[in-house]
Design a protein that fits this description.
5 helices; 35% helix; 7-stranded antiparallel β-sheet; 2 domains; globular; Protein Transport Mog1p, Chain A; alpha+beta
């Protein structure tokens, strides 16, 4: 069986599994989801680890930090660092998959409460969209709010940069194609669902267990 055919079968199976998982979650009552402030250890647990990303290798170690002046200037790069009000912690990690010719970047800000995260969302997306591509992209049905753009990133490759709000946290992901092709749409949606679900699990008081 060809490598392309094998990849297609894997993607089909992944799509079926993802759809089944969404139906299961819908039947289990998403109304029980909570919006709780996350501490630094919980932020670290939300970041996907090696077990959550089978077949991928870390290209950047996971890192977390309390929000400070340096973090605010990087993540809320505007006059007055707007969008970082009442932010508590940040986290980031990156992966590569040479076989799939893909990269995945995850970063997030945890806020004092849902109101603060909701108030920050539009300002943060305004900042993010200035440095991404011009074409609107799709992350699937994830989070309470979501936006994404497709454009050239990191050399000649194309990348989808997405922003998602889940309760008290604002998440970002980069789905990067390590070639001149566009990032795989199903993979992009899977990465968004993975990160969002882990953030929700942590806010529900559970240990994040979602995997790709």
């Amino acid at each position: 069986m060809s490598s392309a055919r094998t990849t297609a079968l894997h993607r089909t199976a992944r799509g079926v599994a993802a759809g089944a998982a969404l139906l299961l979650l819908a039947g289990c009552g998403g109304s029980d989801d909570k919006a709780a402030a996350l501490d630094e250890a919980q932020v670290a647990s939300v970041l996907p680890d090696q077990d959550a990303m089978p077949g991928w290798k870390r290209s950047e170690k996971a890192a977390t930090s309390p929000m400070n002046d340096l973090m605010r200037s990087n993540l809320c790069a505007n006059k007055g660092n707007k969008g970082c009000e009442e932010s508590l912690f940040m986290g980031t990690v990156s992966f590569r998959n040479e076989k799939e010719k893909a990269g995945a970047r995850f970063w997030m800000i945890a806020y004092k409460d849902e109101k603060a995260a909701e108030a920050a969302y539009d300002t943060l997306w305004k900042n993010t969209s200035r440095t991404t591509g011009p074409k609107k992209a799709d992350l699937g049905q994830v989070g309470a709010e979501r936006d994404a753009r497709l454009g050239t990133q990191y050399g000649a490759g194309l990348s989808v940069t997405g922003q998602i709000r889940v309760g008290t946290a604002v998440l970002w992901l980069g789905s990067d194609a390590l070639s001149e092709e566009a990032p795989d749409q199903e993979l992009t949606e899977d990465l968004a669902a993975l990160f969002s679900e882990r953030a929700q699990q942590a806010q529900n008081g559970d240990k994040p267990s979602a995997t790709l």
